[in-house]
Amino acid sequence: MRNGRIKLADFGLCKQLTTNTETARTFCGTAEYIAPEIYQHLNYSFPVDYWSLGIMIYEMITLITPFYHSNKTEIKNHVLSGDFQSPNNISFDLQSIITGLLRKNPTERFGINELQSSNYYLSSPYSLEEIEQGNLKCPWKRPVYYFVCFLILNDSYFFFLRFH
User: Fold this and answer.
1) What is the rounded radius of gyration, in angstroms, for the C-alpha atoms of the chain?
2) 154 lies in a domain?
3) What DSSP character marks residue 70?
4) What range defines the domain where residue 94 resides?
5) Structure pTM?
6) Of 4, 57, 79, 160, which has the fewest Cβ atoms less than 10 A away?
7) Which CATH number does the domain housing residue 52 bear?
8) What is the DSSP letter of 2?
9) What is the DSSP letter of 5?
């Protein structure tokens, strides 16, 4: 976190696709973030990332994922067949983004073009350009006191602490 802004990244399970037509078929990921096409063992591409973005936005608003269940098999069943309840406490435009990102059919799922042309940014005090350029003042800053990294290599434990 710097200047009240955070960046999210998790490259623990990733595959770099070099073209728009390239696909992957590996079954991996966190159960609640896995797109339907992965659960169906189909070839998949970039739309799985937009699905995960929709899950993350939903979870940031409601503090629970849209297809939550304590049992991983039930999560899969909910993702494949169940619908989710869109949060009531958000704008219609933001609901449409979440709904677009969580379309089960990857060819109908929102991508970058739909996100950039969304009415959400017209009805919001934020613009993509201001967000991208870092021109917006963060409404709050939480101090970061330390950063901890825990690593296990060959049964040896390593801790890295960085104080701010």
Assistant:
1) 18
2) no
3) S
4) 31-138
5) 0.72
6) 160
7) 1.10.510.10
8) B
9) B
